[in-house]
Design goal:
305 residues, two-stranded antiparallel sheet, 10% strand, Rossmann fold, alpha/beta
């Protein structure tokens, strides 16, 4: 089997894509987000994984499955390792605990923040590895983040805009440089699911299966993980314009002034006459460029590991 790494800005729809892949008979999904880039080189990488990943939200610490996973990882990870070694250990342990379907071709690991190290993941896993990046309207992403983490106000908007612009720079570079990286908009997955899932299936080497248009978890219907707590049978478009009610109009205006050009490039229509953003936008873009260069340098170092 070869790996597929699903990533993107947090709260951009990576869980929806994972749910759409979940029921395919040729796919093995790791149940949680590994955050492997954060702990693989720790003195005790297994402790780092148990403390830093979100796998534990799928089973209670101290439960049989928790202890079994820890045991299997400790047999494979006895000290610091490179990013590939950490993920291979997790994949092998997961395959023993959650055996993949017969004939599986792809194993999927979803950690949104691995967007910053996607080049390293693809280079260290070879030609068959694939990455899928999910992009979402930043107003929807910011709305979801604010609801979950209570980050609001002008300072939070400026920080979010810089981070989104940094991610957008990375995505543009990946599109230009990494043939194995596929980019899909969250809105397209919601509104026009089948053709975009066919494109993803082709990129991953999967046979087409109608299950790819129905989100599931563990083969059971999945209602999503909305920050607003609502559930839906199948795919719902309710999330697409929720930001209109949940965000402060002043925050929307500021966000659009900072990211308007980038949003337009993705086909997101502005709701205000945001103008060019002036010096604030130029300063934010310069800051985002510095952060993007730093992330690319870090990814190159991991790729050599």
């Amino acid at each position: 089997m070869h790996p597929c790494f699903v990533c993107g800005v947090a709260r951009s729809g990576t869980s929806l894509l994972k749910g759409l892949l979940d029921g395919h008979p040729q796919v093995m999904l790791l149940p949680g987000e590994s955050f492997a880039a954060d702990w693989h080189d720790a003195a005790d990488p297994v402790a780092g994984f148990l403390a830093g990943s979100n796998f534990t939200k799928f089973f209670e610490p101290g439960s049989g499955i928790y202890l079994a996973l820890e045991q299997k990882l400790r047999a494979r990870l006895t000290g610091p390792t490179d990013l590939r070694g950490a993920l291979i250990a997790l994949y092998e342990a997961g395959a023993e605990l959650w055996p993949p379907p017969p004939g599986s071709r792809v194993w999927v690991e979803k950690t949104p923040r691995h967007l910053r190290v996607l080049p390293a993941l693809l280079s260290t896993f070879g030609d068959r590895a694939r990455g899928v990046v999910v992009v979402r309207d930043p107003r929807g992403t910011m709305s979801s983040q604010q609801k979950r983490w209570s980050r609001g106000g002008a300072a939070a908007v400026r920080t979010f805009a810089r981070r989104w612009a940094t991610a957008d720079r990375l995505v543009a570079q990946y599109q230009a440089e990494l043939p194995a990286a596929l980019v899909v908009r969250y809105e397209d997955l919601v509104l026009d699911t089948e053709p975009h899932m066919r494109r993803i299936a082709d990129a991953l080497g999967l046979d087409w299966d109608p299950i790819l248009v129905t989100p599931t978890r563990g083969g059971e219907p999945w209602g999503g993980n909305s920050s607003f707590g609502d559930k839906a049978a199948g795919i719902s478009d309710h999330s697409l314009r929720r930001w209109e009610q949940s965000l402060d109009p002043a925050d929307v205006a500021l966000l659009e002034s900072l990211l308007g050009k980038r949003m337009a490039a993705w086909g997101y229509e502005l709701s205000t006459d945001a103008g060019g953003g002036g010096l604030r936008r130029l300063a934010m873009e310069a800051n985002a460029a510095r952060h993007a260069r730093r992330e690319r340098k870090r990814a190159r170092g991991l790729g050599r590991g």
